[in-house]
Amino acid sequence: MDWPRPWYSILWAPWRMSYITNVVEKKEGGCFLCESPKMGDDRKALIVYRGRQAFIILNRYPYNTGHLMVAPYRHVSSLEDLTDEELLEMIRLVKASMEALRQAYRPEGFNIGVNIGDVAGAGVPGHVHIHVVPRWKGDANYITVIGGTKVISQALEETYDLLRPKLEEVARRYGLS
């Protein structure tokens, strides 16, 4: 059977199923973006930088090595609900994230995105956050396309150890700390 070719491209991300089954279906456990800063162990929580209004956390289910999220400490669902101070710091943290990722990995580009609401694809619809995903030519290779498996080339702990000092240094230069 010939499948009709849609006018749009399809991004298959079967490795995200572990996120759906482990996080999204366990919403009764609370918001991980609210709980992570309270853990007391930034390494275990994967928080690579803490600002005054917002923080940077590694995505536990990354699209690529170095996939970061910038989130406010306050639990709000949309950009309109943020104070000007929160929004400004989040954008400054996105900028710092990009610079640190460039130093660490030399990506050829970035995807920066905010999904607001379930229908927009927000995995955590109650807590707004900005994704910062480094990109390289060919980062969706044959194993992703044919095997339905995403290869993440670095353990999260190694990514944490590489990015945390770079983010601290960049944040200092930006006057964020």
Topology:
Elements: H1 17-22, H2 32-35, H3 42-45, E1 47-50, E2 54-58, E3 68-72, H4 84-105, E4 109-113, E5 130-135, H5 142-145, H6 156-173
Antiparallel strand pairs: 1-2, 2-3, 3-5, 4-5
Helix pairs in contact: 4-6
Task: Give structural notes.
The protein is an alpha+beta fold and 177 residues long. It has a single domain, classed as HIT-like (HIT family, subunit A), CATH 3.30.428. It contains six helices and five strands; from the N terminus they run H-H-H-E-E-E-H-E-E-H-H. Helix 4 crosses helix 6. It is globular. The relative contact order is 0.18. The model has no long low-confidence stretch (mean pLDDT 85).
Structural class: alpha+beta
Fold-level CATH name:
HIT family, subunit A
Question: Which residues form runs of ≥5 with pLDDT under 50?
Answer: none
Per DSSP, what share of the residues sits in E-state strands of 2 or more residues? 5-15%
Distance between the termini: 59 Å
For the largest beta-sheet, the strand count, sense and barrel status come to: 5 strands, antiparallel
Q: Gyration radius, to the nearest Å? A: 17 Å
What do we call the CATH homologous superfamily?
Answer: HIT-like
Query: What is the level 1 CATH name?
Result: Alpha Beta
Tally of domains: 1
Tell me, rounded to a whole number, the average pLDDT.
85
| Structure annotation, total helices | 6
Strand order of the largest sheet: 1-2-3-5-4
What is the molecular shape? globular
* Number of β-strand runs: 5
Binned, the helix content reads 25-40%
**Element string (H = helix, E = strand):** HHHEEEHEEHH
